[in-house]
Design a protein that fits this description.
Blueprint lengths: L1 H8 L3 H21 L15 H13 L2 H33 L1 H14 L8 H7 L3 H26 L3 H9 L4 H39 L4 H10 L3 H29 L11
Helix pairs in contact: 3-11, 4-5, 4-7, 4-9, 4-10, 6-7, 7-9, 8-9, 9-10, 9-11, 10-11
Protein backbone atom coordinates (compact mmCIF):
# COMPACT_ATOMS: atom_id res chain seq x y z
CA UNK A 1 0.00 0.00 0.00
CA UNK A 2 2.79 2.43 0.89
CA UNK A 3 4.57 1.74 -2.41
CA UNK A 4 1.32 2.36 -4.30
CA UNK A 5 0.85 5.70 -2.52
CA UNK A 6 4.44 6.69 -3.29
CA UNK A 7 3.93 5.75 -6.93
CA UNK A 8 0.75 7.83 -7.08
CA UNK A 9 2.49 10.83 -5.52
CA UNK A 10 5.21 10.64 -8.15
CA UNK A 11 2.80 10.76 -11.11
CA UNK A 12 0.92 13.94 -12.15
CA UNK A 13 -2.83 13.93 -11.52
CA UNK A 14 -3.47 14.55 -15.21
CA UNK A 15 -1.69 11.29 -16.03
CA UNK A 16 -3.87 9.38 -13.55
CA UNK A 17 -7.01 10.87 -15.03
CA UNK A 18 -5.92 10.03 -18.55
CA UNK A 19 -5.12 6.49 -17.42
CA UNK A 20 -8.61 6.19 -15.93
CA UNK A 21 -10.15 7.14 -19.28
CA UNK A 22 -7.97 4.62 -21.05
CA UNK A 23 -9.02 1.92 -18.57
CA UNK A 24 -12.70 2.63 -19.27
CA UNK A 25 -12.02 2.51 -23.00
CA UNK A 26 -10.23 -0.83 -22.61
CA UNK A 27 -13.12 -2.33 -20.62
CA UNK A 28 -15.55 -1.12 -23.28
CA UNK A 29 -13.41 -2.66 -26.05
CA UNK A 30 -13.11 -6.02 -24.30
CA UNK A 31 -16.80 -6.18 -23.44
CA UNK A 32 -17.91 -5.47 -27.02
CA UNK A 33 -15.25 -7.65 -28.64
CA UNK A 34 -16.24 -10.70 -26.58
CA UNK A 35 -19.98 -9.87 -26.80
CA UNK A 36 -20.30 -10.28 -23.06
CA UNK A 37 -23.67 -11.32 -21.71
CA UNK A 38 -23.78 -11.02 -17.93
CA UNK A 39 -27.48 -11.74 -17.61
CA UNK A 40 -28.55 -8.38 -16.21
CA UNK A 41 -26.56 -6.52 -18.89
CA UNK A 42 -25.40 -7.49 -22.37
CA UNK A 43 -22.92 -6.00 -24.79
CA UNK A 44 -23.96 -8.07 -27.79
CA UNK A 45 -25.44 -5.09 -29.65
CA UNK A 46 -23.20 -2.37 -28.24
CA UNK A 47 -20.86 -0.89 -30.91
CA UNK A 48 -17.10 -1.13 -30.22
CA UNK A 49 -14.95 1.97 -29.69
CA UNK A 50 -13.43 1.82 -33.16
CA UNK A 51 -16.83 1.90 -34.84
CA UNK A 52 -17.92 4.80 -32.64
CA UNK A 53 -14.71 6.70 -33.45
CA UNK A 54 -15.36 6.26 -37.18
CA UNK A 55 -18.92 7.54 -36.78
CA UNK A 56 -17.70 10.50 -34.72
CA UNK A 57 -15.18 11.39 -37.42
CA UNK A 58 -17.91 11.22 -40.05
CA UNK A 59 -20.12 13.53 -37.99
CA UNK A 60 -17.29 16.01 -37.40
CA UNK A 61 -16.66 16.25 -41.15
CA UNK A 62 -20.38 16.64 -41.89
CA UNK A 63 -21.82 20.17 -42.31
CA UNK A 64 -24.71 19.12 -40.03
CA UNK A 65 -22.47 19.02 -36.96
CA UNK A 66 -22.45 22.81 -36.69
CA UNK A 67 -26.23 22.97 -36.91
CA UNK A 68 -26.68 20.30 -34.22
CA UNK A 69 -24.08 21.80 -31.89
CA UNK A 70 -25.19 25.38 -32.52
CA UNK A 71 -28.84 24.56 -31.81
CA UNK A 72 -28.09 22.75 -28.56
CA UNK A 73 -25.61 25.34 -27.30
CA UNK A 74 -27.97 28.20 -28.10
CA UNK A 75 -30.87 26.58 -26.26
CA UNK A 76 -28.77 25.63 -23.24
CA UNK A 77 -27.15 29.02 -22.73
CA UNK A 78 -30.36 30.98 -23.22
CA UNK A 79 -32.31 28.76 -20.82
CA UNK A 80 -29.46 28.56 -18.33
CA UNK A 81 -28.81 32.30 -18.49
CA UNK A 82 -32.45 33.09 -17.70
CA UNK A 83 -32.45 30.51 -14.90
CA UNK A 84 -29.22 31.94 -13.45
CA UNK A 85 -30.56 35.49 -13.39
CA UNK A 86 -33.95 34.61 -11.92
CA UNK A 87 -32.66 31.88 -9.59
CA UNK A 88 -29.94 34.03 -8.03
CA UNK A 89 -32.25 37.04 -7.69
CA UNK A 90 -35.05 35.04 -6.07
CA UNK A 91 -32.61 33.14 -3.88
CA UNK A 92 -31.07 36.33 -2.52
CA UNK A 93 -34.48 37.81 -1.76
CA UNK A 94 -35.88 34.63 -0.21
CA UNK A 95 -32.75 34.10 1.85
CA UNK A 96 -32.84 37.60 3.33
CA UNK A 97 -36.54 38.53 3.58
CA UNK A 98 -38.99 36.53 5.67
CA UNK A 99 -41.98 37.85 3.71
CA UNK A 100 -40.41 36.59 0.47
CA UNK A 101 -39.75 33.20 2.02
CA UNK A 102 -43.37 32.91 3.14
CA UNK A 103 -44.83 34.19 -0.14
CA UNK A 104 -42.52 32.67 -2.77
CA UNK A 105 -40.94 29.54 -1.35
CA UNK A 106 -44.11 27.41 -0.83
CA UNK A 107 -45.28 27.54 -4.48
CA UNK A 108 -41.71 27.03 -5.68
CA UNK A 109 -41.34 24.00 -3.42
CA UNK A 110 -44.54 22.56 -4.94
CA UNK A 111 -43.15 23.01 -8.46
CA UNK A 112 -39.62 21.82 -7.66
CA UNK A 113 -40.27 18.03 -7.53
CA UNK A 114 -42.01 18.07 -10.93
CA UNK A 115 -39.57 16.60 -13.48
CA UNK A 116 -38.74 18.86 -16.38
CA UNK A 117 -39.89 16.08 -18.72
CA UNK A 118 -43.40 16.44 -17.30
CA UNK A 119 -43.42 20.08 -18.43
CA UNK A 120 -42.89 19.18 -22.10
CA UNK A 121 -46.59 18.68 -23.08
CA UNK A 122 -47.60 21.89 -21.29
CA UNK A 123 -44.66 23.79 -22.78
CA UNK A 124 -45.75 22.75 -26.27
CA UNK A 125 -49.23 24.12 -25.51
CA UNK A 126 -47.97 27.36 -23.91
CA UNK A 127 -45.35 28.43 -26.44
CA UNK A 128 -46.01 29.05 -30.14
CA UNK A 129 -42.75 27.44 -31.29
CA UNK A 130 -40.90 24.28 -30.38
CA UNK A 131 -37.72 26.36 -30.00
CA UNK A 132 -39.25 28.43 -27.20
CA UNK A 133 -40.64 25.33 -25.50
CA UNK A 134 -37.21 23.65 -25.47
CA UNK A 135 -35.60 26.77 -24.01
CA UNK A 136 -38.33 26.79 -21.35
CA UNK A 137 -37.64 23.14 -20.43
CA UNK A 138 -33.95 23.96 -20.10
CA UNK A 139 -34.81 26.98 -17.95
CA UNK A 140 -37.01 24.90 -15.63
CA UNK A 141 -34.34 22.25 -15.20
CA UNK A 142 -31.61 24.76 -14.28
CA UNK A 143 -33.73 27.08 -12.13
CA UNK A 144 -34.22 25.09 -8.94
CA UNK A 145 -30.59 24.01 -8.31
CA UNK A 146 -29.53 27.64 -8.68
CA UNK A 147 -32.38 28.93 -6.53
CA UNK A 148 -31.98 26.49 -3.64
CA UNK A 149 -28.21 26.75 -3.48
CA UNK A 150 -28.48 30.53 -3.43
CA UNK A 151 -31.01 30.41 -0.59
CA UNK A 152 -28.84 28.02 1.41
CA UNK A 153 -25.76 30.14 0.76
CA UNK A 154 -27.45 33.29 2.03
CA UNK A 155 -28.83 31.53 5.10
CA UNK A 156 -25.42 30.04 5.89
CA UNK A 157 -23.72 33.44 6.19
CA UNK A 158 -22.56 33.90 9.79
CA UNK A 159 -24.96 36.26 11.58
CA UNK A 160 -22.04 37.59 13.61
CA UNK A 161 -20.46 38.98 10.45
CA UNK A 162 -23.67 40.80 9.61
CA UNK A 163 -23.93 42.16 13.17
CA UNK A 164 -20.30 43.28 13.11
CA UNK A 165 -20.79 45.12 9.82
CA UNK A 166 -23.86 46.87 11.17
CA UNK A 167 -22.09 47.82 14.39
CA UNK A 168 -19.41 49.50 12.28
CA UNK A 169 -22.05 51.66 10.63
CA UNK A 170 -22.63 49.74 7.39
CA UNK A 171 -26.02 50.33 5.83
CA UNK A 172 -28.25 47.58 4.49
CA UNK A 173 -26.97 47.82 0.91
CA UNK A 174 -23.35 47.80 2.07
CA UNK A 175 -23.99 44.74 4.27
CA UNK A 176 -25.56 42.96 1.33
CA UNK A 177 -22.74 43.88 -1.06
CA UNK A 178 -19.79 43.34 1.29
CA UNK A 179 -20.99 40.48 3.54
CA UNK A 180 -24.02 38.58 2.23
CA UNK A 181 -23.11 38.30 -1.44
CA UNK A 182 -19.44 37.28 -0.96
CA UNK A 183 -20.45 34.80 1.76
CA UNK A 184 -23.13 33.19 -0.42
CA UNK A 185 -21.10 33.20 -3.64
CA UNK A 186 -19.50 29.74 -3.20
CA UNK A 187 -22.94 28.14 -2.85
CA UNK A 188 -24.23 30.18 -5.78
CA UNK A 189 -21.41 28.95 -8.02
CA UNK A 190 -22.07 25.37 -6.92
CA UNK A 191 -25.73 25.78 -7.80
CA UNK A 192 -24.83 27.24 -11.18
CA UNK A 193 -22.55 24.29 -11.97
CA UNK A 194 -25.24 21.79 -10.96
CA UNK A 195 -27.85 23.76 -12.89
CA UNK A 196 -25.73 23.67 -16.03
CA UNK A 197 -25.55 19.87 -15.90
CA UNK A 198 -29.28 19.63 -15.26
CA UNK A 199 -29.93 22.01 -18.15
CA UNK A 200 -28.17 19.65 -20.56
CA UNK A 201 -30.13 16.68 -19.25
CA UNK A 202 -33.45 18.49 -19.73
CA UNK A 203 -32.52 19.92 -23.12
CA UNK A 204 -31.58 16.56 -24.58
CA UNK A 205 -34.89 15.10 -23.41
CA UNK A 206 -36.81 18.00 -24.96
CA UNK A 207 -34.88 17.70 -28.24
CA UNK A 208 -35.70 14.01 -28.47
CA UNK A 209 -39.40 14.83 -28.35
CA UNK A 210 -39.85 18.11 -30.20
CA UNK A 211 -36.53 19.11 -31.75
CA UNK A 212 -35.42 19.22 -35.37
CA UNK A 213 -31.78 19.95 -34.75
CA UNK A 214 -29.59 19.37 -31.72
CA UNK A 215 -27.53 16.63 -30.12
CA UNK A 216 -30.58 15.10 -28.42
CA UNK A 217 -32.45 15.00 -31.73
CA UNK A 218 -29.43 13.46 -33.44
CA UNK A 219 -29.17 10.77 -30.76
CA UNK A 220 -32.86 9.89 -30.96
CA UNK A 221 -32.90 9.78 -34.76
CA UNK A 222 -29.87 7.48 -34.68
CA UNK A 223 -31.88 5.12 -32.48
CA UNK A 224 -34.93 5.18 -34.74
CA UNK A 225 -32.84 4.16 -37.76
CA UNK A 226 -30.90 1.64 -35.64
CA UNK A 227 -27.54 3.33 -36.16
CA UNK A 228 -26.12 2.26 -32.82
CA UNK A 229 -22.67 3.81 -33.22
CA UNK A 230 -24.19 7.24 -33.76
CA UNK A 231 -26.19 6.83 -30.54
CA UNK A 232 -22.95 6.52 -28.58
CA UNK A 233 -21.47 9.43 -30.53
CA UNK A 234 -24.40 11.62 -29.48
CA UNK A 235 -24.05 10.51 -25.87
CA UNK A 236 -20.33 11.33 -25.87
CA UNK A 237 -20.95 14.76 -27.39
CA UNK A 238 -23.52 15.45 -24.67
CA UNK A 239 -21.08 14.36 -21.97
CA UNK A 240 -18.19 16.44 -23.30
CA UNK A 241 -20.33 19.54 -23.81
CA UNK A 242 -21.90 19.21 -20.37
CA UNK A 243 -18.55 18.69 -18.68
CA UNK A 244 -16.99 21.61 -20.54
CA UNK A 245 -19.82 24.03 -19.79
CA UNK A 246 -19.86 23.08 -16.10
CA UNK A 247 -16.08 23.56 -15.96
CA UNK A 248 -16.56 26.99 -17.55
CA UNK A 249 -19.03 27.94 -14.80
CA UNK A 250 -16.61 26.80 -12.09
CA UNK A 251 -13.76 28.74 -13.71
CA UNK A 252 -15.86 31.90 -13.78
CA UNK A 253 -16.65 31.29 -10.13
CA UNK A 254 -12.95 31.10 -9.30
CA UNK A 255 -12.38 34.37 -11.12
CA UNK A 256 -15.17 36.02 -9.13
CA UNK A 257 -13.81 34.71 -5.82
CA UNK A 258 -10.09 35.59 -5.74
CA UNK A 259 -10.21 35.74 -1.95
CA UNK A 260 -10.87 32.02 -1.62
CA UNK A 261 -7.73 29.98 -0.88
CA UNK A 262 -6.81 27.31 -3.38
CA UNK A 263 -8.35 23.97 -2.55
CA UNK A 264 -5.84 21.67 -0.96
CA UNK A 265 -4.99 18.66 -3.00
CA UNK A 266 -6.36 15.39 -1.72
CA UNK A 267 -3.77 12.89 -0.67
Amino acid sequence: MASLINLRNGVPRSAWRFAALLACLLVWHIATQRRMNLGFITFQNVPPPREVAESAWSLVRSPLVLEHLGASLRRVFIGFGLAALLGVALGLVIGRARWAEDALLPPLEVLRPIPAVAWIPLAILMFPSSEASMVFITFVGALFPVLLNTVHGVEAVDARLVASARSLGARRLAVFREVILPGALPSIVTGLAIGMGTAWFCLVTAEMISGQFGIGYYTWMSYTIQNYADIVVGMLFIGVLGMGSSALVRWIGQVLMPWRPAQEKRS
